[in-house]
Amino acid sequence: MASPEIEEEPLKGPPSKFTITGLVIILVAISQGFLGLSDLSMSYLYKDDFGMGPSEVAFASSLASIPWIIKPLWGFISDCFPIFGRRRSPYLAIFGIIGMCSWIYMSSSVNTPVAAVITMLIIQVCTAFCNVIGEALVVEESQKGGDSPEDASKYVTLFFGTRAFGMLITAYSGGILLEYIDKRTVFLITACFPLLLCVAALLMKEHRVTENPTINTQIKEIWQFVKMPQVAWPITFIFLFMCTPSSGDAMFFYYTNDLGFEYEFMGRMKMAWGLATLIGMLVYNKWLKDVKFKPMFFWSCIIGCVMGLTQILLVTRSNVALGIPDTVFALSSNFLVQALGELNAMPLLVLCCRICPKNIEGSLYALLMSTWNFGNLVSSQLGAVLMIGLGITETNFKLLWLMLLLTNLIMLIPLPLLKCIPEYERVEKEERNSDGYNDV
Questions:
Q1: What is the secondary structure of 68-117 as a DSSP string?
Q2: Which residues does UniProt call coiled coil (predicted)?
Q3: Structural domains for the chain
């Protein structure tokens, strides 16, 4: 099976390898990042308009993430069912338009939690499908430079960094807008952003494909690759690490209901999160991309756990005794935790790019990322179960400190499995020498 070839036309400007494909990657990523404008509005819609508690919000949010768990399906559809001989640009245009219409519907006609979850499911299908196309382009561009970690890191940073930049721009705006307009107007503004996908579709120049692979063929090829130990162990580790329980929804209710943080400050928190994400990526790409994966991941996890535990000071009000205002403590601790989280994530993302074989890179990378997203869904569900078990509600945060302690310590449990993951150099050597890999 051959992936559709994309015509490369260098952009005018300083000498570089930047191409039209690079611009398409940016448009797909930033359109996804801009959707962050509605994040706070959705949280407040569930909390205020529908009267949902933290465990219910966690459950609803995890349901809306299902399209991200079945990302390989979107890869199979685009590979096996081209439209007018093209596998990517028509899907970008179609799902861009559907996404826009769904946000318009959310702004005008959604009045129940069930309707909100169903509409968000449709929106997330559109976003996840286009995300698969963008990530497939990232993998293709990464592999054009051979096995160089610099090339892989550059395009991973381009995609995820651009998405984080889009989130950074809209994060604070989402909080500010809620001070002046209602949630549904924010949804209406968000409806404009999927149109960027239509622009990306117009820019793409694809050759028509004449042969369509079958889904069975792709599944067999992917299974042949996934069963290799140097791929199976990273997949297992990614899932186990990502599925540790999360306290994010409980903290949102604590910030808004107990500490009384307003819309504007919650927007500032989202902006700090986006800035930390971007800085974490840039630091990795500039100074850490050549550092061995295992020791860096291990120590960033340990430091991240310690920083996560500092939030206990906030929920027990110890920060007040130390003379640190709630706003300062919340901003700084969240910033540091997120930046360290990105330093954990980037090596895994780069590894996923570099171990994907040609011709099925889109579907295989989608499988790796769906494992990541499935872990996130399980994490959210385990967090909801933990909240119920500890009696944490929208007004009762007595045992929130214990939840923070447990979630941060449980995060360390998968670390012993790091010894099962091969280093980058060994993975690449096995890829070049393995007959099984060459057959994929």
A1: HHTHHHHHHHHHHS-BTTBSSHHHHHHHHHHHHHHHHHHHHT--SHHHHH
A2: none
A3: 20-439 (1.20.1250.20)
Confidence check: pLDDT of 10 > 60? no
**Predicted local confidence at residue 214, as pLDDT:** 76
Question: Model-level pTM?
Answer: 0.81
Query: What proportions of the chain, in percent to the nearest 5, are helix, strand and coil?
Result: 75, 0, 25
What residue spans of 204-262 are helical by DSSP H?
215-226, 229-242, 248-253
Kindly state the helix (H) or strand (E) to which residue 203 belongs, with its residue range. helix 195-203
Instruction: Look up residue 418 and give its two tokens.
Output: 């790091």
Amino acid at 50: F
How many other CB atoms are found less than 10 A from the CB of residue 162? 23
Residue 300 tokens, joined: 């960033």
Question: Among 357, 346, 364, 372, which residue's Cα sits nearest to residue 427?
Answer: 357
For helices 71-80 and 215-226, the axis angle rounded to 10 degrees is 130
Tens-place pLDDT, residues 340-362: 888 888 877 777 777 776 666 66
Supply 136's token pair: 């497939």
pLDDT at residue 439 tops 50 = no
- At 1 the pLDDT is 36
Q: How far apart are CA 369 and CA 276, in angstroms?
A: 21
Residues in Cβ contact with 229 at an 8 Å cutoff, skipping those fewer than 6 apart: none
Q: What are the counts of helices (DSSP H) followed by strands (DSSP E) for the chain? A: 22, 0
- Please list the alpha-helical segments (H only) found in 210-360: 215-226, 229-242, 248-253, 263-283, 293-309, 311-315, 318-321, 326-355
Dihedral angle sign, alpha carbons of residues 338, 344, 345, 350: positive
Strand partners, 206: 6
Q: Which residue has the tokens 């790091």?
A: 418
Q: What is residue 421's DSSP assignment? A: S
Q: Give exposure, 296-311, as e/b (b: 16+ Cβ within 10 Å).
A: bbeebbeebbebbbbb
CA pair distance 198, 28, nearest whole angstrom: 10
Q: In whole angstroms, how large is the CA radius of gyration of the chain? A: 22
% residues pLDDT > 70 (the chain): 88
Count Cβ neighbours within 10 Å for each residue of 213-252 and write b for 16 or more, e otherwise: beeeebeebbeebeebebbebbeebbbebbbbbbbebbbb
